[in-house]
Design goal:
The protein is elongated. It is built from 17 helices and 28 strands. Helix 7 packs antiparallel against helix 8, helix 10 packs parallel to helix 12 and helix 11 runs antiparallel to helix 12. With 607 residues, it is α+β, with helices and mostly antiparallel strands. About 4% of the residues have low confidence. Strands 1-2-3-4 form a 4-stranded antiparallel beta sheet, with no helix packed on it. A 4-stranded antiparallel beta sheet has the order 5-6-7-8, with no helix packed on it. Helices cover 31% and strands 28% of the residues.
């Protein structure tokens, strides 16, 4: 069975019970999920939606508590996966929490520098409150008896609070902030991990004193971010095995310290990126040793290290995949799964989601899936996908090209010229023509529009050239200037079109077109000369009848021009680009464009 948890958060906290591991953290969006993983069955159990980031977790029986970035401590029933209570614990973020050994009290700390104690089963004000620091607190812990609470944070001071009296013991010593705390299981001390890469074990009576673990270079490179004591192992013969303390750090390592001696710690590798969560899960049976350590952090992967009966962690680990790794495998699977993956990824703001979506857009074997990817990128306005969407304008499938076009316009809706200028350079003519049509609609927004459209009069594709001419004529109704520009800038087919349209509009002898027609009669291109001559002949109806009877080619040209005039009169040609002059005739009076014109209409157009 695959080792998959499937969460998308960068992990900031772990908590474990008899069967479930809770995984929480931060996302690019404001909300997140807690994923409950059944480590006995080796499968995800459920997810819990949280309207904030999760910065701390604690589990006791069926109760799961989460310290959240919106200052709320949320309490969940892990069996149901439902939120049963929310407590506004702090102004700013709630950064850490702990559940007392009796399961009835909850201690929280936050960026407001306060420590607060609540009843787990009550929606009430705190039963105790301590304003400990002017800066953020980052760690909190109960002692095994539930009589003391430790708290520490950005000021580097470790504090022990006696709950029965409210007495606070301040213990300074770390060089920089403190991120983690845990009480020793048996001898009444408090361990802290700080930015200075050391673990300090504080004595809680008498003078403020501590042991410094790691100060000799055996500690972490960078901050100590999490601490955990392993349960007491069985005796090895007559010898009692000592306590083992685990520290995790920003270096992606876990160090295993023995409290009873000062030997250098063992080092476990947990991915090389900062680790923020450590949790111990008891074994389901004696043959599995004591249980397992789970570690996770910035890399998202969760690492599991087995712990043998003597309390020694394994050097090797099992790595559990996060959600992006799971979806990366789905990309090569069946189409329905790939479509589901696209929709899942589109709802995520992480760069990894964008990377996978772009990969699907570029490489998926089904055009429908590539189209869906383009649509989702546009709907979510993923600006980081613009470069690949521009490439998708040249996709082999028309639906993908049009989806990419629409997506680019959605992303840059505040700068509508940007995607259209990219689209008019696309490889496929249909996209360039579509861009020309949309450019014309922006006429009132920029003085650049007419020039951009006019540039397409020299496009390498005839349909784009005709579209450009049609849109220019819409921009300047009643003016022959677009026809003059088309003749001067376009190739032979567009010169012919300009002459035919001038004939249709009755502009051949206007001041704008008369010099153009004169030049056309001496043009190098034979088609241009032929149409120019036929158009001039049509101005003299009697001469046209005589010459048609003698020149079959002239008669055919005049008939084509007359057909176009008839189409315009009957309203059959709404867009000039839909009726190119080279259209072949199918059935009587029907062009390839499907605009049917009767012989009577053509005859009337010649009169």
């Amino acid at each position: 069975m695959a080792n998959q948890i499937g969460h998308f958060e960068k992990v900031r906290a772990l908590a474990a019970g008899a069967r479930l591991l809770a995984v929480g953290g931060v996302r690019a969006s404001a909300s997140s999920q807690i994923t409950l993983f059944d480590f006995v069955a080796n499968k995800p159990a459920r997810t819990i939606e949280v309207a904030a980031h999760v910065l701390g977790l604690a589990m006791a029986g069926d109760v799961l508590a989460a310290a959240c970035s919106d200052g709320i401590a949320r309490i969940f029933d892990v069996k149901e996966g439902s939120e049963v209570r929310s407590i506004k614990a702090h102004e700013g973020s709630a950064t850490a929490l702990a559940i007392a050994p009796d399961g009835g009290r909850l201690a929280t700390v936050g960026t407001d520098g306060a420590l607060r104690i609540f009843r787990v089963g009550e929606d009430s004000a705190p039963i105790a409150e301590y304003k400990l620091s002017p800066v953020a607190l980052r760690a909190v812990a109960f002692d095994p008896a539930g009589e003391l609470v430790g708290a520490a944070g950005d000021d580097g001071v470790v504090r022990s609070i006696t709950l029965s009296t409210g007495a606070v013991r301040d213990m300074a010593g770390h060089d920089g902030p403190v991120h983690s705390l845990v009480f020793t299981p048996r001898d009444g001390r408090l361990a802290s991990g700080g930015d200075d890469g050391t673990v300090r074990i504080w004595y809680l009576v008498g003078e403020v004193e501590h042991e410094n673990r790691g100060g000799d270079g055996s500690g972490h490179t960078g901050a100590v971010t999490a601490l955990l004591f392993l349960p007491q192992a069985a005796k090895d013969g007559e010898k009692e095995l000592g306590d083992r303390l685990l520290s995790a750090g920003a270096d992606g390592k876990i160090r295993v310290w023995r409290l009873e001696d000062r030997r250098k710690p063992r080092t476990l590798d947990a991915g090389g990126q900062p680790i923020f969560g450590l949790a111990f899960a008891p074994a389901a049976s004696a043959r599995e040793g004591l249980g397992a350590i789970f570690a996770a952090g910035e890399k998202r992967n969760v690492y599991r290290f087995g712990v043998d009966a003597q309390g020694s962690p394994s050097d090797s680990s099992t790595q559990f995949e996060h959600g992006f790794q799971v979806l990366a495998q789905v990309v090569g699977g069946a189409r329905p799964a790939r479509e589901t993956a696209v929709k899942t990824l589109s709802a995520l703001d992480e760069p990894e989601a964008l990377e996978l979506l772009v990969k699907i857009l570029r490489t998926d074997r089904d055009a429908e899936v590539r189209t869906l990817a383009a649509q989702e990128l546009g709907a979510k306005q993923r600006r980081g996908a613009k470069a690949k969407l521009r490439e998708a304008l040249d996709d082999d499938h028309t639906a993908v090209r049009h989806a990419a076009f629409d997506a680019l316009r959605a992303i840059d809706k505040e700068q509508p010229l940007v995607p259209l200028r990219a689209a008019i350079e696309a490889r496929t003519a249909e996209i360039r023509a579509k861009a020309v049509v949309e450019l014309a609609k922006l006429r009132d927004t920029s003085p650049l529009i007419p020039g951009l459209i006019a540039d397409r009069l020299a496009d390498r594709d005839g349909s784009v050239r005709l579209t450009a001419l049609a849109e220019l004529m819409r921009l300047y109704p009643g003016s022959a200037e677009p026809l003059r520009t088309a003749y001067e800038r376009g190739p032979a087919d567009l010169k012919v079109e300009a002459l035919i349209q001038a004939t249709v509009q009755g502009w051949l002898s206007t001041p704008v077109m008369a010099p153009i027609v004169a030049r056309a009669l001496d043009a190098d291109e034979s088609d241009v000369r032929r149409v120019a001559f036929a158009a001039k002949v049509l101005e003299r109806r009697a001469l046209a009848h005589v010459l048609e009877a003698r020149d079959e080619d002239l008669a055919r040209t005049i008939r084509d021009i007359a057909r176009r005039i008839a189409q315009v009169r009957q309203g059959l040609v709404a867009v000039l680009a839909k009726a190119p002059p080279a259209a072949k005739q199918g059935k009587q009076g029907e062009t390839q464009q499907g605009a049917k014109v009767s012989d009577e209409a053509i005859k009337a157009a010649r009169e």
